Records
---
Amino acid sequence: MEISGAKILIESLKREGVEYIFGVNGGAAMPIFDALYNHPYVKLIPMRHEQGAAHAADGYARATGKVGVTLATSGPGATNLVTGIATAHMDSIPMVAITGQVYTHLMGNDAFQECDVIGVTRPICKHSFLIKSSEEVADVVAEAFHIAATGRPGPVVIDFAKDAQLSESLFRYPETVNIRGYKPKVDGHPRQIAKAVELIHNAERPMLYAGGGVVLSDASDELRELAIKTEIPITVTLMGLGAFPETHPLAMEMPGMHGSCCANYAFTDSDLVIAVGARFDDRVTGNLDKFAPKAKKIHIDIDASCIGKNVPIDVPIVGDAKRILAEINKLVHRVDIEPWMRQIDEWKEKYPFEYHQNGDNIMPQYVIEQIYDLYSDAIVVGDVGQHQMWAAQYFKFTEPRQWLNSGGLGTMGFSLPAAIGAQLGCPDKTVVNINGDGSYCMTIQELIPAVTMKLPIKIFIINNMYLGMVRQWQELFHQKRYSGVDYHDNPDFALLAQAFGATGLRVERIEDVRPALEKAKNINDGPVVIDFIVDEEENVFPMVPAGAGLGDVIRGLA
Amino acid sequence: MAEERHIFSVLVENRFGVLARVVGLFSGRGFNIDSLNVAETDQPDVSHMTIVTHGDAQIIEQIYKHLNKLIDVIKVSNLTTENHVERELVLIKVYAEPHRRGEILQIVEIFRARTVDVSPTALTIEVTGDEGKLKAAIDMLRPYGIRELVRTGKIAIMRGVTK
């Protein structure tokens, strides 16, 4: 029996095990939405803005490890997805973004709501397809999911012309996918692995440096085994938090611009850096000339183009982190690095994350500490800015996929919709959204579907009435010229939440912080928003200023 | 690091958008393409690109890796490091009043070039060869006045058969 291209798409998604599609309807996608109507297996989650739809699909993927799917119409629907696709691309998140496209005979004619989506998204996705005939649909979906989920994962765009959605073909889903130009290498070269093991055994001041790739490759167990077996100290990046428990004695916590002094000093003194699924990002390395100058470097990464991109590597190992770490674990033994560990412990003890109470103000770090105390098992979805750094510093993550945030692109507005995706993907988990007053407003409309679906997301706004991270830079580097960062015109977020149909609370005194967080724990019939009015000009420290080396970290203002 | 010229031979899927992906890889990173030639191979679903580019060793390595990363790219070889043959074809329209035509035709002869078009005031000459030969031919013809010059960009192929 022949069925429409739109129906073939949904049946193909079902074959791929897709439970949810996060979308916003529009003219050129109507046949797809029609095929989703009352579908028994593939459920449509209508969002209020395409950016929110993309972040929700992304949050679902980050929380579950499965491919997230988002759907929008042509033209403005597709361009609104762009930020969400770029966000997923920078953090290597498996996602399939489907856009309606105008009829093929209108393409290139400046038709109503037409946009060259393939052209616009080319540099921000892993791959893209244009479907011009319903006969192509099943093969394209199978290839798209294969590409999105394997190798270094990433978003794949499917642009789907409306006439191809409507025309009918036989549905036959391919059993296997074979793309001759795409064969990701998963096993590490044994000779390279042997070289790495030799370096590990001979190092005096070794350290592990793990990133988001460990989470993506589901290699957290292998990473823990390596660290614990060798007793090598470990720093985990913002994207990898939870891959190794931050409560463990070997944990040095996050490195980089706002990372721990211990991790940054360790890089500066180390003689062997073992990088796993981390990409030597500029926010981690600081000034490259001063980065880990005494260290040999081992780099394990599935993406060969990541190796040697920023930092010369002595032992590159291309492949899947999980498999490579498992091989290394078979060969390594405990290393005797007593003096080095004494130094690490001294740094840790001397320079912990710390802040000073300012009068009666609620300190943002205090709010995070209390959230951690009450919600230590929750999935935490952070947004971008000061609150993100404080959450990374003061919440001690212990499990992979427990901390979701836009690390690479740094997309403000990511967290609320991503929390929706995470909550749908993990219905039995508590989902906490730590947001800023600036970032919250960027996708605040997604509170509507959260209320409609009665999702019990805890939305905690660290409200300092500023675009705080930018204000901090202006304070430190622009003589306090607070240009374009004053958000004292913020609305009352508690009242606003109530207008949306959510529970809204406002907290202005220190003694009310914990009771409010406790109260939120027991509100499970829908989202709860707590607006924490915090110290306005608190800064994030430690801080490695742009251009400085990690050793020149500023621990705080005198 | 010293900049060097490199020739990449790239086999790609013969479908729309592939050229844009390859070119986008260069433009998005601020890498320069010196010349680019694309055409079908003897397999209709595979195209061959010869890309001439330059950069230091790190940039060349990045180009190689990013070309490999493209889904539509089937195979990448850096011919500069291999034993290879390279050719380029140039069409030169040169001013040739009747009294100078003889001299120009002598130059054509010397370079084993060909005259492909003639008009009362101009000759169009086809020269094939490597970079050095083309440069020499162009330099010899320049004094007569070059009206127009079109080059194919380099094409290259590995010598022998790799096992």
Note: Chain B has two domains: 4-82, 85-158.
---
Amino acid sequence: MGVEILVYIYLAVCLAMIFFNIGTIIFARQRDRANEKRSIQYESLIREEVKRIGRGEPTGQKTVPYLERKLRHPEHLLVFIHVMTQEYTQFPDEIRTCLERFSEALDSLSPHYERQSDPIRYAFFLYSIKAFCQMSGVMPPQVAEILLRALRVPYTYCRENALQAIYGSGQPELVIRALEVIDSEHIAHNKKLLSDGLLSFRGSKDLLMDRLWDVFESFDVGMQTVILDYIRFCSPSHRDRLLDILTDETRSPELRFSSIRYFAKYPDEAAYPVLLEMAGNLGNRRWEFPAIACTALASYPGEKTVETLKRALHVANWYVRYNAAESLARLGVGYMDLIEVIDGNDRYAREILQFQLDMQYNQRKKAAAQ
Amino acid sequence: MTDTIMKTADIILKIINIFFVAYLVGYSTFLFLSVSVGSSELFKKKQQYRMMSAIKNDYYIPISIIVPAYNEEVTVTDTVKSLLALDYKVYEIIVVDDGSVDDTSKVMIEQFQMEPVRMPIRRQIRCQQEEFVYEAKIQNVHVSLIRKKNGGKSDALNMGINASRYPYFICIDADSVLQHDSLKKIALPLLENENVVAVGGSVRPSNGATIENGHVISYRLPKNLLASMQTLEYDRSFLASRILLDKFNGALIISGAFGLFQKQLVIEAGGYDPSTMGEDMELVVKLHEYCTANDIPYLIKYATDAICWSQAPESMRDLMKQRKRWHIGLFQSLWMHRHLAANPKYGPVSFVSYTYFLFYELLSPYIEVFGVFSVILAYLLDMLNVRFAMFFLGIYAVFGAVMSLTSFFARTQTLDLKLSFGDVLKAIGLCFFEVTILRSILAYTRFFALFGYRSKKRSWGKVKRKKIDIR
């Protein structure tokens, strides 16, 4: 009898799966059709509102309650954003006014979506905030609070969409507050996402960098590295502060690596001797110091650079040798100037240099052929 | 006397009966769970993209792509061309020619106008000596060709790791094509969680797909019926041994056709083992073991939407050769890491993943053959209800077929691949053949796979290649 039950269970599972397959296909088709209809409805609703704005009339009585009710459904919100974004390209001023008029309905959505147990829906709501704020050019304080709260959600995409909205607001203070939340509450958000994400900040980058320096010391090393990486991508005007970090041996190595990279991108007279010293002297330091300094020296042509890099070719660490050889090749140092290494007894130095010179030669040959 | 024999036979058959009921319940529960969890995961992922939960900015982690090649003159240049079309900024391509006896290196050098370089290779993992190195910079992507003495696929991969310059590497087969966004997608789990040390991509048979600049422009079930059945089989096993096991960090396989690894950790763990045929599985099992032994927090993830299109064998002979090789690799990996069996230190990796692979993959052909003999014995002793047995077999086949179909439809739907009505009918028809006939043939192949496997050491186990439909 037990085995018969098993057979019935198999049959039931098969039937359930067949229904599941058919159901998902029908659902997907129905949803696409419904969204097409919704798109037409929202387009006419928005166009009607645009006309009212043109005529100086107030919003239709039923519009706001209708939106309050409908936009609680993510599919409606998805279509609504799509239509609004399309209309915005044609009537930017009117759509901005529309958003002001609909603000009551949009504000009412926050408690609903914040309660969502599905993080995908909540992340989407945060995306919609970003879209609305970009169109309206305004980030009301209560919306900023929602975004800051979202940073604590243990779902990468909620945090990322919230951060994107914050960067899009163009408000340096809000960005600082967001970084403070992440830093003080040890929220695990990838450092690369943070430093690259800051590049999408829409306000004054100089103002943001000034504010970041103001609070720099209050952050832990991880966040400080994020800030330095961001500054490296943005501006050559922070040499003095970066030089202080570069020369301060009490600072974390991570910060000093970041400052070496800064001076590789923006060569500086004052940083030059420090880089020469770092590249030529391993001492008790971590190998990364001479390795990164050797790469940075490619931006500092000169006799001293060549001599230092040639010495670095004999260092035992692979990366130091590799970077020194690469920098020598990038500086276009001639074969005759390197003959002592090429004909020398240090096989490792010779091989790595020959490889880099071969690469440079091939590139030049290819460029000439083109 | 006869009575005693009959009673003993009855008891033995009852025990066998209980064993098989438990075995089948275990397998079908696993299959059902994997198909339902896997399908829901795929739909969730699709929903995530629809709902704009995607990292769209250019967050790039530098990646080295290693392409081990042995006698791949027909496909290797197409593979490299497809890699050059990837939508990713910072990556390099390293083709390792493992002493091919055809013109693999020659076609690479001529096609990409490569130039010789004297590249010093930092041997952090043991591998055979290189014979020459060529390089080229194409569309800002650095392409290297390293020709080395023959040492097998693992040895070629180890050479690629030694020669790579970036902190993460991807291994792909020389007959595979990556979808244009696959690097972005396979790297995403690294941004989501910093403990991720390896990510498996999703492999689909390229037979029947037309790919243009890394985009699938048309998709049909392959004309070749064997390849079609493998498509169904790939989808089912992808949902089972990939997505479900991924839920508890229990993946034991990242396909050699497309996987991403943290280079330093792989070097510390000793790289690919040249003595195994299942180097892809062995590495993943080794990473579990290494990280657990050294208290390294780690995650091995699956990127369900990072797609690699790979050729499925179109002849039964090639398919049997491939499966034989896979089965030997499975045996070697499980045997080499046998202390993972029922070891509480490894948690679900031991009790779920290892147990599943041991009983339902490695031992399944032997258990199945034993089952067939038991049925014959029961029939001879007149202890078999033939009608019920046939009915049960039929239901079980329908169950397997429905699971395969569900996996197939979930995958095609979530990848936005449009299926013709003819293909839907074909899939429905073929899924029964796949779970009955193909499965039996492959069980037979796997049953004999382990006989004389030692002599196949370092073999590449080649199957006949044809040009991939890339435009």
Note: The longest helix of chain A spans residues 2-55.
